[in-house]
Specification:
The chain is an alpha/beta fold. The chain has 17 helices and 36 strands. Strand 17, helix 6 and strand 18 form a beta-alpha-beta unit.
Length: 689
């Protein structure tokens, strides 16, 4: 079987040739790339079903791709492992999970290892944008620290981001791609001798004696820090609907991991649920990988993410269904289609508005929950603990970096290593960077019909200033004093196009009347190299929200160092300033099926994926007055599975709320070690030397 589901070329990412590694999947010899995770190697061969659940034989596949759940478990060399966190080894024998695996026997009584213990001033859990920024700031004060991260590469979700960042160029690398920011921050930190970095290392628990258990590779270690800094980020929320556990339903973060980290084509046609920035950006990344995005549904009347992200998708040909939600994922062994429905102002489905659209993947992007377990455990143990980034408050990565820097200074002050007062303007800027989108103002086009000038197709107040920073003549200004103002241009432009290539939203075009006042040249930024555009080609040009303006011939294509192409067309004067982009995807990709709608039976929807516990089973006990989630676990097994309730707990709490309970009425699950599964031999058995 050929690994034909790999990305061969990408407009942003460099495709490197890697060594092939043989392995076996259910006795079939396949090939992976060196250091590749098992799940990605299987996806590269078009294998999406990794086993069947022991309870009801339901198909199991990838879900989080981040080690948070256990949906992707396989048997590797006789041991159950998470395929998304386990690299392929030469001639590894991998089998699907069918029923309960036989456990290997033990020839001798277990003996206990001596556990290594370390002390440090600061332990940082998480090497994403906030953890790295805090570590860099602490290192400036020569604070000894250990940073642990469960991935092989530092940067957290930055390593999945191929788009340019918003915010401030000075404060958080605005206009730089996330993948490049990860490298910048990692390189900065590794220059400091006082910083120790442990990759492929997972924090397991914060114990009552103020020590933290760490799984470093395959070795268990104890760290006793003076201060714990939680920078673990967030995990994705899930929805309950019929078919929600079918292979092909997974989080947007899992999709970005497969596409942008592992360069896998996991889908042909995706549908996205959720119009926040995560869902909107995932759609853009899919298009860059050559995957059709057949639609995006948002239950609110407007997308909650940046309007420029939404507009960019619509311009490229992606239908956006606001006031819509998912009714069901349809298919036998994996997703074959999605049924969506319009909702009223109370988010109730409107009968007769159902629409079924063929797709093979449904991405859930309905928000994030902070990973705050370690912070709570540290507080219970009486430790000094700080949180930063999404672990403290969900916001954009630009905000996480800036707040990580501030938190680093706070930790240094708590250790008496710094007396620096955090400037008042930093706190103000931090609030701006994490602020949600503000006002959407009227769309105004320039009145000029001569010379050359930029046209700004952004109308929503968001924190962003790259265009003002890059103009060599300082002719682009932001209204007001805040990063949240809209840009405007005044003066005599030279047509350098720097503002086009630096704009994170690709929301600036250049109109040049100098050679022809009736058919000016319009320059359009473009980054979807899997849909190549060449001189002489006819393209569909569109307005700010994707409305078709006409079909024009390309007169020139310019490549830039930023990997943003400039597509130039000659346009009739009456539409030239309205052109905001080009459509690459035909709207027919979202044509509906005439198939009958599946009935929605709420009580049969799976809430606990690990133990296959339905909403009906849980609701029965809630209505009988069970308010202790520990008791609910004993009665139903909900939360007793391998993921430890990371996915189902928030869904169960939502069910309590629907039944009229408040959080104060609920006794939460008791947290017990361990955060993730650990082979017993690592904790207890003497290993062979």
């Amino acid at each position: 079987m050929l690994d034909s589901h790999r990305i061969k070329e990408h407009p942003i990412l460099e495709i490197k040739e890697k060594k092939s590694v043989p392995f076996y999947w259910n006795d079939q010899k396949l090939y992976a790339q060196e250091d590749e995770m098992i799940s990605s190697a299987l996806f590269a061969h078009g294998i999406h079903i990794f086993g069947h659940h022991v309870k009801d034989s339901s198909p199991q596949g990838i879900f989080c791709a981040n080690g948070q759940c256990a949906q992707c478990t396989v048997i590797a060399n006789g041991i159950p492992v998470k395929s998304c966190m386990t690299p392929v080894a030469v001639n590894m024998i991998v089998r699907s999970c069918e029923g309960l695996p036989e456990l290997p026997g033990i020839d001798e009584s277990p003996t206990f290892n001596r556990i290594e213990e370390y002390e440090t001033d600061v332990l940082i859990i998480g090497g994403g944008p906030s953890g790295l920024s805090a570590a860099i700031e602490l290192s400036k004060y020569e604070v000894p620290l250990i940073l642990v991260d469960d991935k092989s590469e530092l940067g957290g979700k930055l390593v999945l981001q191929t788009h340019k960042f918003f915010g401030s160029i000075k404060d958080c690398y605005a206009s730089t791609r996330g993948i490049d920011i990860a490298t910048i921050l990692s390189d900065k930190l590794l220059k400091y001798d006082t910083a120790t970095v442990w990759s492929n290392s997972t924090a397991l628990y914060v114990f009552s004696d103020k020590k933290v258990g760490i799984l470093k590779g395959d070795t268990y270690i104890i760290i006793k820090p003076k201060i714990l800094l939680n920078a673990t980020g967030a995990r994705e929320k899930m929805l309950v609907f019929p078919g929600n556990t079918l292979p092909g339903v997974y989080g947007a973060g899992a999709f970005q991991t497969l596409v942008n980290r592992d360069l896998i084509i996991p889908s042909e046609r995706i549908f996205i649920i959720g119009g926040g920035n995560v869902g909107l950006i995932a759609g853009y990344h899919a298009l860059q990988a050559g995957i059709y995005v057949v639609g995006l549904a948002e239950a609110l009347s407007e997308c909650g993410g940046y309007k420029v992200h939404k507009d960019k998708l619509q311009r490229l040909g992606v239908p956006i269904y606001t006031s819509h939600t998912i009714l069901s994922a349809n298919g036998k062994d994996q997703v074959e289609s999605i049924t969506i429905v319009e909702v009223d102002e109370n988010f109730k489905p409107i009968s007769g508005t159902e629409e079924t659209i063929p797709c093979d993947t449904i991405l859930i992007a309905v928000g994030l929950n902070p990973i705050d377990e370690f912070h709570k455990e540290a507080e219970e143990a009486g430790m000094k603990v700080f949180s930063t980034g999404d672990a403290e408050e969900i916001a954009e990565a630009s905000s996480a970096m800036f707040n990580g820097k501030i938190t680093g200074i706070k930790v240094a002050k708590a250790l008496n290593k710094s007396s620096k007062k955090i400037p008042e303007e930093w706190s103000k800027k931090a609030l701006v960077l994490k602020s949600p989108p503000k006002r959407t103002l009227p769309y105004k086009l320039p009145e000029a019909n001569e010379g050359v000038f930029p046209v700004f197709h952004c109308v929503q107040e968001i924190p962003c200033n790259p265009c003002t920073s890059v103009c060599p003549l300082d002719l682009i200004k932001i209204s007001g004093e805040s990063l949240l103002g809209l840009p405007s241009f005044e003066g005599e432009c030279t047509g350098c196009m720097k503002c086009l290539t630096v704009c994170p939203a690709l929301a600036i075009t250049l109109v040049d009347y100098r050679k022809d006042s009736h058919f000016p040249t319009v320059s359009i930024p473009y980054e979807i190299g899997n849909h190549p555009v060449e001189s002489g080609q006819l393209i569909h040009v569109v307005g700010i929200e994707g409305e078709l303006l006409g079909e024009l011939s390309v007169i020139n294509v310019r490549n830039t160092k930023s990997k943003t192409q400039i597509i130039q067309v000659k346009a009739p004067s009456h539409i030239a300033k309205k052109i905001a982009g080009l459509r690459i995807q035909s709207l027919t990709v979202s044509n509906s099926l005439d198939s009958p709608l599946l009935d929605t039976i709420d009580d049969k929807v799976i809430v606990c994926r690990c133990e296959r516990v339905t909403a009906g089973e849980i609701r029965k006990w809630i209505r009988r007055g069970v308010t202790d989630m520990n008791q609910l676990k004993q009665l139903t097994r909900a939360g007793m599975g391998a993921c430890g309730g990371k996915t189902c707990e928030s869904l169960i709490l939502r069910m309590y709320k629907e039944e009229g309970y408040s959080l104060q009425d609920i006794t939460f699950n008791t947290r017990r070690p361990l955060y993730v599964e650990v082979p017993l031999e690592i904790l207890s058995l003497m290993k062979e030397k």
